[in-house]
Write the structure tokens for this entry.
Amino acid sequence: MGKISLTGLDMVLGMIEEGVLFLDEQRNVVAINEAAKQMMGRNHDQLIGKLCPSLFPKNPCSKTCERTKKCALVPAAQDGKVAVDLAVTRPDGTLMPLHMWATALPKNESSAHCAVVLRNRTREVQLEGMAKERMRLGRLTGHSPVMQSLYNEILLSASSDASVLVTGESGAGKELVAQAIHDNSHRARNPYLQVHCAALPENLLEAELFGHSKGAFSGAVTDRPGRFEAADGGTLLLDEIGEVPLSIQVKLLRVLQEREVVRLGENTPRKVDVRIIAATHRDLPAMVKSGKFRADLYYRLRVLPLRVPPLRERREDVPLLASNILSGLSSRYRRDNVTLSSQAIDVLLAYDWPGNVRELVNAMEYALVHADGVAIQPSHFPAELLETAPHPLVAAKRQDGAPLVRYYRGPAMGTEQQIILAALTEVGGNKSIAAEKLGMSRTTLWKRLKQYGIA
């Protein structure tokens, strides 16, 4: 077996965190760096000359490797497929979680045919365990799979100082994601500041971000540090980054590259240590193509991209969110005994929530204001929610076992007066049963009867 000399590469391979195994064409290990030895828990002599599949017997690609007599990960890498995650049992019995991928090497004088790269996933696995089965992270609430994934991404981002770009629809909770990243990072004890980039005109936004000296412009009566200086050592959220003018984008790029700011009216740069999180609901790649957003700034901000899912993609979280929102609102309105009826929850689940969590908060406050009993009913919600409510919904049974159909206000069911008359007719005029069928309290039904002149 020919041997590979790592002379000239030893220094580089010894400095990187990833483990590297060089394989010959028969998939035998011909060279290995120090990081790989530590990950495998074995020394040089225990690894050199070994067949790669024998070192990773539980690797998902080992069977393919043994069947084809070729490294299965090399064509996968060429096809752009994702690498594999696995766990290696070391001689002392401990498990080492690894991320593995491979690449073919160009023709060379040594016996090395391809390189297998290993990355230690211990930290990722720990974070995944922290995120798993979470109901909340900071002020974010949700137990759906997409939220569990988001929690994990937030914790991973918090362990780094790299810039983060948070994208998502308006009202989805991008600001809460940014706050959670800061609160779980090593910067948590230092300032966390926000700048809403769409709320300020260009000249004021520039002064707000970078600061100004006395006399820099009309009204600048004293020196004032900007948000970058004020957030030194902490985190700065640039909310609605897609609204920043191109002239200020150039200066933002300088801050990200040089880690220094220059106040308006000065020439002296000031060093800053700030973790940048940017958030937007805009399509930044499309803005880059149209020339409205700088490509170099986009890629500087998007080191760690995070997407916040809209509420319609995590409907199973709606009841939990609504209950939490109602609890907070009930304290403010001093109505701690108010709850959500099951019929009201059905309405919430049927709606698409184009305004996301922000719209849900508004809908719950509207319902609490209009509720005249201890339970929020469908009729207490804004009209747009009722238009998508389920028609019909089986809610109870008559004495003969036939289902009672619950009526909801909405265009598919006629006018409210017609619905009330139909419900009263079906139950023989019994107002208590009719109110239950209509999803409203008896007091509300009485008011409607008086309003429509129904005897």
About this structure: The chain has a mean pLDDT of 82. Residues 10-120 form a domain with the Beta-Lactamase fold (CATH 3.30.450.20). The longest helix spans residues 318-333. The CA atoms of residues 137 and 151 lie 7 Å apart.
